[in-house]
Amino acid sequence: MPSLGTKAEIRFLDLDIETRRIGFHNGGRFSPDGCEPVIIAAAWDGEPARTWSLGPRWKEQDARRMLVEFRKLWDQADVVTGHYIRKFDLPILNGAGLEWGLEPLSSKLTLDTKLDLLNIGGMSQSQENLSALKELEESKFHMNDTWWRKVARLTPEGLALAEERVVTDVRQHQELRVAIHRWLKPPVVWSPRA
Predict the structure, then answer these.
(1) Residue 2: inside a domain, yes or no?
(2) What angle do CA 68, 169, 150 make, to 5 degrees?
(3) Does the pLDDT at position 1 exceed 80?
(4) Which residues contact 55 (CB under 8 A, 6 or more apart)?
(5) Contact (Cβ atoms closer than 8 angstroms) between residue 170 and residue 41
(6) Is 1 a domain residue?
(7) pTM of the model
(8) 8 A C-beta contact, residue 22 and residue 35
(9) Regarding beta strands 108-112 and 35-44, do their DSSP bridges make them parallel or antiparallel, or are they unpaired?
């Protein structure tokens, strides 16, 4: 495993995205195929999350700007962390980059609190469940179908709801990553070429 240096030297970037459906791949079953990012949230340890989103009057430059601004943090991070990011968030962000004429995300060390969790059984490995198990302060912001429709339609109310959800997910993930660090495998390199 590549050396991570001392804890003070490592720049962890916690990440989450919210998406909307734009296609019907896999027979209509939910998957990363057919989704596009609506909002991205990312935060360094101890700092508030930054967010970038599509606008209520969606324009191509909204999507491109959102991805370009996020990549500035991506490029500065030593390790990017999140829950199920290697199978969901990162492929979706990379696909959006292809669509909007950007270069692929660079290879990066990642720590995924779902995929890198040690072998355990008998319980859900969702971020919400693991956070409840560890009695973390930050709770999940739940969304109902009516609110998700507002997000998908990029209404101002929907975008505000999506922002609250994505920011609370990042804050909860930051707490979770620290709380279960002894239960996680070492970071691994995520590559768009894998």
Answers:
(1) no
(2) 75
(3) no
(4) 62, 154, 159
(5) yes
(6) no
(7) 0.90
(8) yes
(9) unpaired
Helix H or strand E segment including 148: helix 145-152
Query: Per-residue pLDDT tens for 33-85?
Result: 678 999 999 999 989 999 999 988 877 788 999 999 999 999 999 999 999 99
Share of the chain above pLDDT 90, in %: 81
pLDDT in tens, 22-33: 866 555 444 556
Type of residue numbered 94: N
The CA angle 94-97-103, to the nearest 5 degrees, is 95
- How many domains is the chain partitioned into structurally? 1
Residue type, 104: P
Closest CA to 142 of 126, 154, 156, 119: 126
DSSP 30-75: --STTEEEEEEEEEETTSPPEEEE--TT--HHHHHHHHHHHHHHHH
Indicate which CATH number applies to the domain containing 65.
3.30.420.10
Residue entry with tokens 């360094």: 44
The dihedrals phi and psi of 63, each to the nearest 5 degrees, come to -65, -45
Q: Distances in Å between the alpha carbon of 49 and those of 104, 145, 153, 171?
A: 23, 25, 24, 8
Average pLDDT over residues 159-184: 97
C-alpha to C-alpha distance for 63 and 46, rounded to whole angstroms: 27
Report if residue 4 sits inside a domain: no
Give the domain range for residue 138: 9-190
At 99-136, the pLDDT tens digits run 999 999 999 999 999 999 999 999 999 999 999 999 99
